[in-house]
Specification:
The complex is a heterodimer of chains A (about 55) and B (about 725). With about 55 residues, chain A is mainly α. Chain A contains two helices and no strands. Chain B has about 725 residues and is α+β, with helices and mostly antiparallel strands. In chain B, the strands form five sheets. Chain B has a seven-stranded mixed sheet. Chain B has a seven-stranded mixed sheet with strand order 16-28-27-26-17-24-25, with helices on both faces. Classes of the chains: A mainly alpha (about 55), B alpha+beta (about 725).
C-alpha cells in the first residue's frame, strides 16, 4: 500500500507536466497557424529562418 | 488592383503602422493568394531581403503577413509593391481589427478542454479500483474512501475550471429568463460534485467525480468544434472586408498622397481613384474622365460615363481613367451605409431564429428536471430514506445529462461544413445550415449570379477579332477585355493611347487604328451604345462588335435540380426589364421582376416570408445585401461585394452555380443526421432514466453509458453529406 502512496501522486505529477506543456504550447501561439507550420516543414532551404535573417 | 511602383512608394501609410516588439515600426498586411509552402517561403524571403525590412512572417492560415521595419525606415509602399510584383496583391490591415482577430475565446476553450482531459484521465485512474469493488473484488471501505478522496482532489478543481464556459453561459441565459442547454449541464455538474463530496465524507459507495469531469470533456469537444466553425468563418469574412475597400488615397496639401482608412475621410477631402479601384465614399468628380461599373451597386450591366461635376456613388468600380474626386459624404453617410443599415435590420430579425439544439433544450430541461424531482420525492415517499432518494435523483441527472445532445448538433455541422468547404462553399455558422435546410423557395439575382456579370462577344467572327485584338489587349475596359479573351495569341499595338470614356488608338503593322465608341472610331450617324465596340483602320471599313452578359452555363441545370427537390424559383433584378425578360425566357423562369431598388427587393423577400415561405436568396450585388439579410437563408458568390458576403450565410467560390444545390443537399443531410442524433439521445434517455430511478445505475454504468452514447452520435455525424450529393 505504501508504494501506492508514492506512485499515485507521481503519476499525477507526470500528467501535470503534460498539462503544463499543453498550456505552454497554447500560450506560445503554436496553434495559431496550423497550415503554415505544416508547410514550413516542407521548405528545403536551410538558410530560410522564420525571422528572415540568414543562419 | 493595378498599382504601379512609383504610385505606392510616395504614399503615407502611417495610419496603419503600429509599434512592434523592441519599438520597431511594423505593419500587418493581408496577402491574397498565398496558399502553399512555396508561396510562404518566396514571400518571406523576398520581403525580408528588402533593406528596410528587419523581419517578415506570414501566417498561412489567416493570410496575414507581419512586417517589422528597421527603425525610421518604414516604407510600407515598397513592400506592397514588391508583393504585387511577386503576384500576391496585398492590402494593409487595420491594427484595431488585427487585435480583435486574436482568438482569446478559442484559447480559453482549448485550455478548458486540456484541463478536462487531464482531470478525466487521472480521476479515472482512481475510479478503476472503485469500479472493481462494485463487482465484488476485494476493496475495503477505508481504501475505497481513500480512492474517492484522490479522485475528488483531482476532478473537482478541473471540473470547476473546465465547467466555467458552461456556468457563465447558463447564468447569462437564466438572467434573461430563458433556459438554454447549459442550464441542465451546469446544474448536473454542480449537483454531482456536491453529492459526491457528501457521499465521500459519509463513506458511501456512489461517487461520480470521474463522471462529472468526463462529461465536461465530451461536451467541450462539441463546444470547441462549434467555436472553430464560427471562428474560421468570421476570420474569412473580416479578411474579405479588409480586402475590398481598405483605404483611400487622399491628396493633402502640396500634393502629398496619404493612404487613409475609410473612417477618417471627411466631406471636402480630395480623393484620387485609379482605374481598377472602387469609389470609397460618395463624391463629385473634379477632374478626369472615366467609366464606372455599377453592376454590384444596382445590378446594371452597362458601364456609366462620368466626367467633371458628375456624382459618383461609393462602391462603384472605376474602369478606365484616373478620377480626382471631392468627397461629399463620410464613409458612414455614403449610399453604401444606407444599404448597410437595411442589412443590419434584416440581420436582427434573423437572430431571433432559435437553433435546433436550443429547441431540444427547451423540451429536455423540464422533462429531465421533473423526472429527477419525482425520483427524489417518490423515492422518499416510498420509504427509501432521503439520502438514497437524493442519490437516485442525482443518478437520473447524470445519466440523462445531455452529453449526446451537446455533441449531436456541433459534430454534424462541423462535418457538413468541412464537406462543403472542400467544394468551395464557406459556411458562416451552424445556424445558417439549419435555416438552409428549411428553405422552400429560391430567389436569384440576375447579374453576376444567373449570368456571368461581365460582357461576352456575340457572333464572334475570327478574322475580325484577330484584326482588333492587338488594340483590345492594350485596354482594361471590360468590353475590350471580352474581345481579347476571344482572341488567340497576338501582337500588341504600338504607341497606344487611351482616351477615357472614348476608346484606344494605336499603330498595328504600320497603320493607325482605333477601337472604341462609334463617334471615336469615326462612324457617322451611329447611336452611342454601351454594349458595342467599333474598330477600324484610318480610311477603311469599320467593324462592329456587339456584346451581352452571358448566362452561366450551369444556370438552367441548377434551376432544374432545385425544382426537382421541390423548390420554387424566382428572379428579382435591379436591371432593366428587357435583358431580365430575355434571361428569364432562356432559363424558363416564369416568376420574375425587374427594375427593383434595394429596398423593393428586400420588401419582396419579406413579403414571401409573411406568406409563410422560407426563402433562400442568392445574390452578389450591394443592391442585394438587404434582401440577403432579410431572407431566411442567403448565399453569395465569392465575387460579390463585401457587404453582400457579410449579409450572406454561405459564400461559394468558383464559377459554378452547382454549389447552391450541393449546399442545399448537405444542409438537408445535416438536418437529417441531427434529428437522428436527437432521436437516438431520446431513446437512450428513455431507457437510462427509468434505470436510474429504480437504482440500477452505479458509477461504472454511468461512465460506460455516457461515453457510449457520445461515440454513437459522433459516428452518425460523420455520415453527413454522403449519399446522393457525393
Amino acid at each position: 500500500m505504501s508504494i501506492f502512496m508514492l506512485l499515485a501522486p507521481l503519476s499525477v505529477m507526470i500528467a501535470l507536466v503534460g498539462l503544463g506543456a499543453f498550456w505552454w504550447t497554447l500560450r506560445s501561439g503554436q496553434y495559431d497557424d496550423p497550415m503554415g507550420d505544416a508547410s514550413r516543414i516542407l521548405i528545403e532551404d536551410p538558410l530560410d529562418r522564420p525571422d528572415g535573417r540568414e543562419a | 488592383m493595378a498599382m504601379t511602383s512609383h504610385v505606392l512608394e510616395h504614399q503615407d501609410f502611417s495610419a496603419f503602422m503600429r509599434d512592434g516588439e523592441d519599438g520597431r515600426p511594423s505593419i500587418d498586411l493581408l496577402v491574397k493568394g498565398a496558399r502553399c509552402a512555396a508561396c510562404l517561403s518566396k514571400i518571406e524571403r523576398e520581403v525580408a531581403a528588402m533593406p528596410s525590412v528587419s523581419s517578415a512572417r506570414l501566417n498561412l492560415t489567416t493570410g496575414k503577413l507581419s512586417v517589422a521595419f528597421e527603425r525610421g525606415r518604414d516604407d510600407a509602399g515598397a513592400v506592397l509593391e514588391r508583393l504585387g510584383s511577386l503576384g500576391y496583391p496585398a492590402t494593409p490591415f487595420d491594427p484595431a481589427k488585427a487585435l480583435a482577430a486574436h482568438d482569446a475565446e478559442g484559447r480559453r476553450l482549448s485550455m478548458a478542454l486540456g484541463v478536462a482531459a487531464f482531470g478525466a484521465g487521472n480521476a479515472m485512474m482512481f475510479s478503476v479500483p472503485i469500479w472493481a469493488g462494485l463487482f465484488g473484488q476485494e476493496l475495503g471501505p477505508a481504501t475505497r474512501t481513500l480512492m474517492q478522496w484522490m479522485s475528488a482532489v483531482i476532478a473537482a478543481p478541473c471540473a470547476i475550471y473546465a465547467g466555467m464556459p458552461f456556468f457563465t453561459s447558463a447564468w447569462r441565459s437564466l438572467r434573461k429568463g430563458r433556459a438554454n442547454m447549459d442550464v441542465p449541464i451546469s446544474i448536473g455538474v454542480i449537483l454531482t460534485l456536491l453529492i459526491s463530496f457528501v457521499e465521500t465524507v459519509l463513506g458511501g459507495a456512489d461517487t461520480y467525480f470521474d463522471a462529472a469531469v468526463s462529461l465536461l470533456f465530451l461536451l467541450l469537444i462539441g463546444r470547441w468544434l462549434d467555436h472553430r466553425l464560427r471562428a474560421n468563418a468570421r476570420s474569412a469574412a473580416s479578411d474579405l472586408l479588409a480586402m475590398q475597400a481598405p483605404a483611400a488615397v487622399v491628396v493633402g496639401g502640396g500634393g502629398v498622397e496619404h493612404r487613409t482608412p475609410l473612417d477618417d475621410i471627411r466631406a471636402g477631402d480630395l480623393l484620387l481613384v485609379r482605374p481598377g479601384e472602387r469609389i470609397p465614399v460618395d463624391g463629385v468628380v473634379e477632374g478626369g474622365v472615366s467609366e464606372l461599373d455599377n453592376a454590384l451597386l444596382t445590378g446594371e450591366t452597362v458601364p456609366v460615363r462620368v466626367g467633371a461635376d458628375d456624382i459618383c456613388r461609393a462602391g462603384a468600380l472605376n474602369l478606365t481613367g484616373t478620377l480626382r474626386l471631392r468627397a461629399t459624404a463620410r464613409s458612414e453617410d455614403s449610399a453604401v451605409a444606407a444599404i448597410a443599415r437595411l442589412v443590419e435590420a434584416g440581420a436582427q430579425s434573423r437572430s431571433l431564429y432559435v437553433r435546433l439544439a436550443d429547441k431540444a433544450a427547451a423540451l429536455y430541461v423540464p422533462v429531465v428536471h421533473s423526472a429527477a424531482a419525482i425520483t427524489f420525492l417518490g423515492g422518499w415517499a416510498l420509504g427509501l430514506g432521503p439520502r438514497e432518494a437524493l442519490l437516485r435523483a442525482v443518478a437520473v441527472l447524470i445519466i440523462t445529462c445531455p452529453c449526446a445532445l451537446g455533441l449531436a448538433v456541433p459534430a454534424v455541422q462541423i462535418t457538413a461544413s468541412a464537406r462543403l468547404f472542400r467544394r468551395g462553399v464557406l459556411v458562416k455558422s451552424g445556424a445558417a445550415l439549419e435555416r438552409l435546410a428549411e428553405v422552400d423557395h429560391v430567389v436569384f439575382d440576375k447579374t453576376g449570379v444567373l449570368t456571368e456579370g461581365r460582357p461576352r462577344l456575340l457572333d464572334p467572327i475570327p478574322a475580325a477579332i484577330a484584326m482588333a485584338a492587338p488594340l483590345a489587349r492594350a485596354s482594361a475596359h471590360p468590353l475590350a477585355r471580352a474581345l481579347s479573351a476571344q482572341a488567340g495569341v497576338s501582337s500588341l499595338a504600338e504607341d497606344v493611347t487611351e482616351t477615357p470614356g472614348q476608346g484606344v488608338e494605336g499603330w498595328i503593322a504600320g497603320r493607325r487604328a482605333r477601337l472604341g465608341r462609334a463617334g471615336f472610331v469615326g462612324v457617322p450617324g451611329a447611336a452611342p451604345s454601351e454594349t458595342e465596340l467599333w474598330f477600324g483602320f484610318d480610311d477603311d471599313t469599320k467593324i462592329r462588335f456587339a456584346f451581352a452578359d452571358a448566362i452561366r452555363p450551369d444556370a438552367a441545370e441548377t434551376i432544374a435540380a432545385l425544382r426537382q427537390r421541390g423548390l420554387s424559383v424566382e428572379m428579382l433584378s435591379g436591371d432593366l426589364a428587357a435583358p431580365v425578360a430575355k434571361v428569364a425566357a432562356a432559363l424558363g423562369v416564369e416568376n420574375w421582376r425587374a427594375g427593383l431598388t434595394p429596398a423593393e427587393k428586400s420588401e419582396a423577400i419579406a413579403a414571401r416570408g409573411r406568406d409563410g415561405r422560407r426563402v433562400l436568396m442568392v445574390g452578389d450585388g450591394l443592391n442585394d445585401a438587404p434582401a440577403l439579410a432579410n431572407a431566411h437563408a442567403a448565399m453569395a458568390p465569392g465575387s460579390a461585394l463585401d457587404a453582400s458576403q457579410n449579409a450572406a450565410d454561405l459564400v461559394f467560390s468558383g464559377e459554378g452555380l452547382g454549389a447552391v444545390v450541393a449546399a442545399f443537399d448537405v444542409a438537408r443531410s445535416a438536418r437529417r443526421r441531427a434529428l437522428e442524433n436527437f432521436a437516438f439521445a431520446a431513446l437512450y434517455n428513455l431507457i437510462a432514466a427509468p434505470a436510474a430511478m429504480f437504482g440500477f445505475i452505479n458509477p461504472f454504468v454511468a461512465a460506460l453509458a455516457m461515453s457510449g452514447s457520445s461515440l454513437a452520435v459522433t459516428l452518425n455525424a460523420l455520415r453527413t453529406g454522403r449519399g446522393r450529393t457525393s
